[in-house]
Amino acid sequence: MTETYQQYVEYLQKIADVNYSSAVLQWDQEVNMPPKGAHFRSRQLATLAAYAHELITDSKYGNLLESLRSSATGLGPKECANVLESYRIYAQQKKYSTAFVTELNLCVSASFHAWQQARTKKDYSIFMPHLQKLIDLKRKEADLLGYEQHPYDAHLNLYETGLKTSFVDKLFEGVRNKLVPYITQLLRKQQPEDNFLFKFYDKDKQWNFGLYLLRQLNFDFDAGRQDISAHPFTTNFSADDVRVTTRISENDLFEMIGSCIHECGHALYEQGLPSDDYGLPSGEYLSLSIHESQSRLWENHVGRSRAFWNHNYGYLQQQFPSQLGNISAEQFYKAINRIKPSFIRTNADELTYHLHVLIRFEIEKEILAGKLDAKALPEVWNAKYKEYLGIDVPSADKGVLQDVHWSHGSFGYFPTYSMGSFYASQFFHFASKENPDLMHHIENGNMMPLLLWLRQNIHQYGRTLLSDELCKNITGEVLNFDYYFNYIKTKYDELYA
Ligand code: CO
After folding, report:
1. Is the pTM of this model over 0.85?
2. CA of 296 to the centre of ligand 1 (A)
């Protein structure tokens, strides 16, 4: 390894130190911080973010990258991939003027605050002017970053390198033309009984069952821990320190179970990244949709499977004999997979979830194209919920105000949620093909063969390639909606037979 490359590694690891320190403060803010701490915590986080931005846009660092790019002699393929990815991020960050970053940050702070108030008061008009200002800035940002076809591309690219609106359009054509009619068909059938999931379930017992699941899924407690927070999330401070959180509702058993397995899937990915490559692209997650593919794969393909509950239901039943004593494993399996159109994306089932994402995608596309403004948003939102899910949104907090993303200025994030599920199906198809006994192992409580497959095929590569390339390497083609559709069709045809 050349001396210049070594300098680059040290510099990047210093940036990682700053970013992961902010992650610790953010995690603490969600998990431990007393209310009065909020004021100075925002300040501390803003200072660290500004410092990280300064480091990453420093011209001396840019010169270092330039010289590595122009003479790559002595560098292996992984080192070359690191340099190219770092240069891409550097060039992208350089497009933002300090004035723009400041204006955007101020607008985001005000919008987030207004959104919280608006949601509590169920009054969209409190949020609307802030959102409009943010939309204007986001349109400006698309011009600043540049794009070839659609201004929305510039934003998608921030979460998923190279992703185009036209590609997402094609994916969601599958949702519109295949999934929507299939859901309609299932909704006409008799629905499985699921009342028992909403009985009273003691918090401590649920917490212990969650830990039992994390251990079974091979979460490494020497390199992570679980805590409680208002919204479940996963964060990490290195591959050797990964934090998951969960939320326990005493009247909804599967909320904890589902979110626990979901976040564990994210955490297993982080714990599987090469820790020797700390701070380098090769030591970081590939993209948001690949991250979500890991959580959805464990949550849906494992945690909502019959095999998984054949193994675990007896133990769950022992923990809650009065609630589940008369319920069979088969009844439980059907109940946790019931289709139910609902207002809230995060509570949606495995199928209708994508209609929520489709609605947000259509709206964001129109916003960035300059065809839709904040004023008309609730009306458009409610009409789409009627059209796709057949439900009337009762109030703004259950409608247009439910997600935090827009108040943070995140446009282009939502499609990665659905793409994550679709990737999960495509990957799982090939994992099962290569290991015909996979479901059998899961039925015996042995999750290791699947984890090892993911480590070997996905985790070890970090961000040394694009999502498309990873997918082609594993499956021979780019993301294809049909894998997801075939998986759910087989599962739900049988479940609803
Ligand atoms: Co997730």
Report:
1. yes
2. 7
